[in-house]
Amino acid sequence: EQPREILAHIANVRQIELRRSRQDAPGCGFGGGFQRLFTEDAKRAALDVVRMAVDAGAEVLVTEAPECYTLLQAGARKFRGQVKVRLLSDLVY
């Protein structure tokens, strides 16, 4: 809940929940060495998260994990600017 609370205090931010969120949220594909062992599966996992953001109509997909940022950004490139990926810390700054 803490990242959502932080976003709530940033002006002009309207939060959109993805189809699968909170306990049901999929991983970005990075965790536990998954990206190193299963590179293509990790890319697909990140792409699925980005696709959910696009489907939800989000303009920005926010992550608090720098590890996920890179994978999600790569996935977002496939959607040609439909959604941007930002780190929560950058938004706060």
Would you write up a description of this structure?
This protein is mainly α. It contains 5 helices and 2 strands; from the N terminus they run αααβαβα. Strand 1, helix 4 and strand 2 form a beta-alpha-beta unit. The mean pLDDT is 85.
Order of helices and strands: HHHEHEH
* Low-pLDDT sequence parts: none
How are the strands of the biggest sheet laid out side by side?
1-2
Query: Structural class from helices and strands?
Result: mainly alpha
Q: Helix segment count?
A: 5
Major sheet size, sense and barrel closure: 2 strands, parallel
Shape: globular
First-last Cα distance:
19 Å
What is the topological layout?
Blueprint: H1 2-8, H2 34-37, H3 39-56, E1 60-63, H4 66-77, E2 84-87, H5 88-92
Parallel strand pairs: 1-2
Task: Produce a short descriptive summary.
The protein has 93 residues and is mostly helical. The chain contains five helices and two strands. It has a two-stranded parallel sheet.
Q: What characteristics describe this protein?
A:
93 residues, 2 strands, mainly alpha, two-stranded parallel ribbon, globular, single chain
